[in-house]
Structures are given as C-alpha cells and as structure tokens.
Amino acid sequence: MDSLGDAGADAWEVASRRAGVIAGQAAQLNADLVDLMVEVLETNCWSGGGIRSPEHWLQLMTAVSPSHAADIVAVARRKGDFPELEARLARGTVSLDQLVVVARHVPAAYAESVTEFVQAATVSQLRRVLPKYLFEPGTPGPVEDPPDPVVPVDDAPKLQMGLRGGRFVLRFDANPLDGALVEQAIREAKDALFTAGDPDATLADGMVECASRSLHQAAPASRREHYRVLVHLDADGNGWINKRGALPSRLMRKLTCDGTLKPVWTKDAKPVSVGRSMRIVPERTRRLIEDRDGGCRFPGCTVTGFLENHHLFHWSEGGATDIDTLISLCSRHHREHHQGEFSIEGDPGIPAGLRFTDRHGLPIERDIPDEIPPPDHPPPEKQPVRGWIMETTSINFRPTPDTG
C-alpha cells in the first residue's frame, strides 16, 4: 500500500483511496455483525445471566458503544426488508450508518425506490430527508355524521390494587385528561432513569420511581415515617410485609443487602420497644463505594444513577459492611442476582477483580481468541460519489408495485 510520506503532492489522492478501501472493509465487517445478530435474535441466545437486551449482549461481546450496538440490532431486526441495500453493505458500497437511517424510517415497500438515493447521499442528508418524508400519506375519509349526545357518566378516576397469586396487581381507570397526567409523570420518571444510565428502564420502572419519589418527599418526617414500607424480619432469616404473608427468600436477601432497619425489641415474644432507624450500609460507606465503582459493576451495564449496594458475602449470614465486600449494582441487576441469574465473586477494589458467571457457571465476558484471523471478504467495490447538492423538496419515493 502506498505510503503517504512518499506520495508528495499526491498524498490527498493516496489517502482518499486508502480511506475508500477501509470504508468498504468496515461495511463488510458490519454486515457480518448484522448477520450474527440476526441469528442471535432468532435463537434468543443473548438472554439470561443478567444480560438485559440484545444490544447489551453486543456491547459486552464486541466492546462497541451503546449507540453502535443499537444501530446494528436495528438493522438486524429489519433483515430482508432492503435486499439490495443489504447486498451493497456486504459489498462495501453502502455503510452501516446509511442503512441504519433507512431501517429506522423507511417502510419495506419503498426499499427499491430509495436504494439509489441512499447510495448517493451522505448520512447527514439521509437524516434530513428520510425522517420527514411522508411515505404512506393518508387519504381523507368520508365526513361522519355528528355523534349522538353524550350521556353524563362518572368521570372520576378509579384504582384497584391488591395481591394476587403472590404478586401485587394494580388497575387504574381514568378519563383521558387524568390518564395523560399520570402517563406523563410515569414517562418523566422512566426518562430520569434512562438519563441516569438505564437505557432499558420500562414504564413499570418509572411507576415505581414515581412512588419512591413521593414517599421520599413526604413532609414532615412524622408523615414520611407513617407511610414507610415496613418489612418484618426474624433471626431465622424470614420476613413478611405486615399481614401479607412471607416474602420469597430472593427478596429478603436483596432487601437486607441495602436498606434501613428499625429494630423491634421483644421480651417473652412480645414487642416492648422500637429502636432507632439505621442503614445497613452507612451513608459515608455508600458514597465511597459509588465513587469507586462509577456505576453498576455488571459487565457492559451503563447505569450510573439510582444504584444499590450489594454484599458479596451476605449481610444476613455475617458478611461485613465495608468497601472490600460491597459493590454497586443497578436495581435490575441486583434483583436478577438474587433471583439466581448470575453469581459474583472476586475483589471489588480492583477494576477487573470481579468475576461474573451465569446460572450455568459460564463466565459473562468477552471471548477473544489468542490469534484473530484476518477477514476473508473479497476486495470491496469502489466507493460511490456521495453528497451532491440536491433539492430535497423535489425527491419522490414510490412503493414497489405488488406483483403477487
């Protein structure tokens, strides 16, 4: 390959030619990653052992960024919708970034129509045009007769909640305006969890976060104490919530990893006094651990806020509460660990000192061979010219005619 140092005035041309070859090779390798993710999605082999999603699995196994992993999975989920563009990705003349914009915005019926435009456009041009293009414009329907007069009804919100089969079940019914208010509050809390580093936070997680915020903000302190969720523990490791029956052992172990205790002193099996509230993990220790870890310690997890402390040697079994035996986990991975999805061992004081294994004893980590073979693709085709000035308002895409 030509050396830029020896190219003189032609250095720009030499560098451009090399960049084109590397771009084509990168596209071919990304096509391999897409094909791999198609198989992973079909077999569902990404799941288990604390892995939250296909994107999380790809981040962990290939060390790509969360956004790049999301792009590859997005294209894999649309595999087969854009056969010509997928073939050009494999030949190296369309980039993954170009195909990502298509996969996120273009219906499969328009695959043939957008192909040449995609190859000739830059990613910036695709991002300007495709999200705003109305691929399937609606047609005005017939004017309907006015509806019958509405009979007044009870429009107050209704809420039902209780235990069913060992699970807490909640049903909320409201008018659209009150419903929209509740929905937005839950979505805001879900977005706060996302901003804190949990990209897989659900609306259910957002609802729990809303409840947690409300209880933490209750004032005065006596009112906040009145509505505290109380878990009763005994010396044998059993626990229950008021009169709602025993809690599963996995929940007990999670709660006694990181919580607030208020001991109740008994005499002759009768309560006689209530002690002062105390955290299992003191606030100063908690801050030191979170500062050391910088986020959830599970491999590939990006959550940095709303963390919980986990005892490597369980507190209820005599495990010490100090920085050498505690690690930070997000609520999802803390819960899944106590459900038996994966185990943790090692020294948390060393950046790579922890070992995570799934329920089958297999390590949760990247599998890098001692020698990485070079890719065996054919030479990529020449890169097309992209980015000509275009009047995007005059672009017209049409769906492929149905010949079936």
From TrEMBL:
Give residue ranges for domain HNH nuclease: 284-335
Q: Which InterPro entries match?
A: HNH, HNH_nuc
Q: Where is the composition biased (Polar residues)?
A: 391-404
Region feature Disordered, mapped onto this chain: 367-404
Organism, by scientific name, is: Tessaracoccus lacteus
One Pfam family from the UniProt entry? HNH
Q: Which domain of life is it from?
A: Bacteria
In its UniProt entry, what is this protein called? DUF222 domain-containing protein
